[in-house]
């Protein structure tokens, strides 16, 4: 039995065999959303092969159960590339979500904005991304499946549904391009100026490798950033991880409303 199958079987033993409809990955400071799931919370440490995910502000549990009547699997934490230097750190966890039945994956993250019209406390729907890091989680994959098309990596139908849900909730959800910066150090003002020239609207240290992996696994994807700060050189604020954790809840309440409305459309 593979490690993926072993982990999936263990989850079914604890959470039941009913298939999961949707997977959700939560970013820094957003882990509390997982506690709204009516079901079970399984520590990553109990699941073979699951990521280390030791960044403060994350909730390293897999929550499986109902959220607004939809059966979901919520990853309360992710392992970032900067923790161990592995861009494919989330591969097994995403394989497990697929094996549990998930067809769609919604990702969230904390990000720095490069646009004055998307300030801290706002949300940004990812319309596309730039893999500024140059890293790829499919390097070493031996099959031709590694040549994954990324034209619609951010699924248009899911993006439209999330946008409609934001409008229904009276929340301003602008779209933009997200740039993946490897971290863990924050970007310099010169790097931010460069990323703006390349067409990026926000920058963060996650999400892109997971979208690549999810598309490889056949999952449809959409992602929303919670803006926690203006990017380096865009304001006088001091950027830090503590600041990120403190600011994330400002957008988290809006994000929860959007996700709950979105889930109602899946019934």
UniProtKB/TrEMBL annotation:
Binding, phosphate: 28, 58, 78-80, 110, 206
Transmembrane annotation, as ranges: none
Binding site for a purine D-ribonucleoside: 187, 229
GO cellular component term, pick one: cytoplasm
Keywords: Glycosyltransferase, Transferase
An annotated GO BP: nucleoside metabolic process
UniProt-listed InterPro entries: Nucleoside_phosphorylase_d, Nucleoside_phosphorylase_sf, PUNP, Purine_phosphorylase
Top-level division of the source organism's lineage: Bacteria
Classification via Gene3D superfamilies: Nucleoside phosphorylase domain
MF-aspect GO terms: purine-nucleoside phosphorylase activity
Domain Nucleoside phosphorylase: 21-263
Annotated pathway: Purine metabolism; purine nucleoside salvage
Pfam families, A to Z: PNP_UDP_1 (PF01048)
EC number in record: 2.4.2.1
Entry function: The purine nucleoside phosphorylases catalyze the phosphorolytic breakdown of the N-glycosidic bond in the beta-(deoxy)ribonucleoside molecules, with the formation of the corresponding free purine bases and pentose-1-phosphate.
Family to which the UniProt record says this protein belongs: Belongs to the PNP/MTAP phosphorylase family.
Subunit structure, as described in the record: Homotrimer.
PANTHER family: METHYLTHIOADENOSINE/PURINE NUCLEOSIDE PHOSPHORYLASE, PURINE NUCLEOSIDE PHOSPHORYLASE-RELATED
Name of the protein in its database record: Purine nucleoside phosphorylase
Protein source organism: Pseudotabrizicola algicola
